[in-house]
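Please check this.
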Amino acid sequence: MRNCNFFSVNMDLAQIKAAILTFLLIGIVSFNSDPVAAQPDLKVITEDWAPYNYEENGELKGFSIEIVQAVMDELGEEYSISIYPGVRGDRMLETLPNVMYFSLFRTPEREDKFKWIGPISQEAIYFYKRKDNPHTYQTIDDIKHANNITVPYKGLIANKVDELGITNVMKLSSRDRQFSLLFSNRAELAVNTSPLGVAYYLKQIDKPVDSLVSTGVKLLEFPLYIACSKEIPDSVIERWQAALEKVKSSEKYEQIYSKYLM
């Protein structure tokens, strides 16, 4: 009986030691575990806005698309990117948790509603002329003396043109039409999109990307950001920001930009 009791006590001690060891191991693993494992399941979305984000033949393309994908590669993470109409994307960002939405303007009205990563790029919109146009334009006053300027029918650019008191304009809804009037010599200047956008739309109408040149007169500037739901932890925002900065300082960033510019 003594031997049996001794064996039973030893078994109890062995079980206790095993339990303690298991508990310690769990604690060590938990203490050293990467906090990335606890990150939220992010929903990464964008809208159809060439040449920054768009879909062509079922494939996602665009400057911002490639930059965001490069950030994911830098993080060692992978999320699918979905394209939604702008209004729906805005609603998702405002009402759903863990949404990242790019490429958005960081406006004063939006500033406190979301968390921000960026800028992805610092874009600007200039007045453009035909390559064979010998005139020089240095100021907005020079622009005001041009013979017709094609501008979008409505939106941010049209509003800024009105705000500056530029009245020698032809407002058109079609960007193709805005450019075609320039090439047919019915307009002297055009202002409607960024340098990447000008290159993209010239390709769409089978014109060389250098057939239009910037006057150097800037209408407005707009940095593009990733807007994020407030529920996303700051640690996630900081990791994405650091990864974006690393991508922006690399040769890959310039390669992607040059690809869409040329």
In short: The longest strand covers residues 212-228. Confidence is low (pLDDT under 50) at residues 6-11, 19-37. The two ends are 91 Å apart (CA to CA).
